[in-house]
Amino acid sequence: MGKKLPIGIQEFEKLRTDGFLYVDKTEYVYQLVHENVPYYLSRPGRFGKSLLLSTLKAYWEGKRELFEGLAIERLEKDHPEAWKSYPVFCFDFHGVNDRNGNALEDSLHTQLRRWEAQYHCESAGVHFGERFQNLLIASRKLTGLRSVILVDDYDKPLMDAVNQPDLYKHNKEVFQGFFSTLKSFDEYIQFVFITGVSKIHHASIFSGLNQLRDISMTRQYAEICGMTEKEIDEYLADQVTAVADELHMTVQECRCALRKQYGGYHFHPDSEGVYNPYSFMGALLNKDFGSYWLKTGTPAFVAEIVRKAQFDVRIFMDQTMFAGESVLKNYTDDFLDPVSLLYQTGYLTITDYDHRRRRYTLGFPNEEVRRGFLESLSHTSR
Question: What is the CATH code for 12-214?
Fold first, then answer.
């Protein structure tokens, strides 16, 4: 019996210990941890960002046994400093309830309190940012090592509040006050990795982190999330054959249909196309070409913003949606440009690039997105 498909499983340790399939991305982890600069990565929802952070967390915690047989085990074999157990502070804001004006503070308090108990750190009467500074100092004193900071989907409390200006401003100010305290604490920080859907807010919120490297559109990390054709061949060939048998198709016909339905994402003009992993795994599990990602992975306000922008729908269909580098790479804080938003949230992807004009052509990555987007746009226009 093959390994279980990890639908909705985002914890690396659970994948490795409970018999789930893990598509080996640890060569990227090796590159990241040995370059050792602060990173930022933007990808659409349900694209594997949380699993990537969970993998980084396990690495920095020194859980070598979880990486047996993976690429990083071989790559680290000649590094005597590998597999130390560093203090890891992994922030997760998925559970922040946008209906509660103090939900972000409650989330920060809960997460900090757990670590304060672990590192015997006093918090009474101290601001969030100072509490985190004290944790960095205490953890280094206790372990002799600098800390690892991981932030998963930092922008969720902001994107959820985009139609509530007061709450949006409040959450942004909370984040700015909290993360600005890291500016003078480089000596206590070993590694930083931050993920999000939108890059719009990160410049001001993380201004305290010097030289945050944005790898969202680099060729080196274009396939760090998502699934490539090679990975499907290596890990999922039997499951694809099972879908083909169920639907009375040849394997080649099934592969073409899966690619058309769920593939086609490019995060660099010269990169290999990748599949949406959530939708692709859903199709394999259900043996049906259904719509999976659009039900869970996209902020509800996207179609409304696009409708208000009064786009001619034909430009989505005939490869005449263009964007300069400033639109996709350099975002203006707090300005939700519709084209940037569609690209970041996964409705559009790079289909071509004009090197002379330095201009991107954008289009729907696949049929699941095309059909779902046009349907949602028609609903909001009624």
Answer: 3.40.50
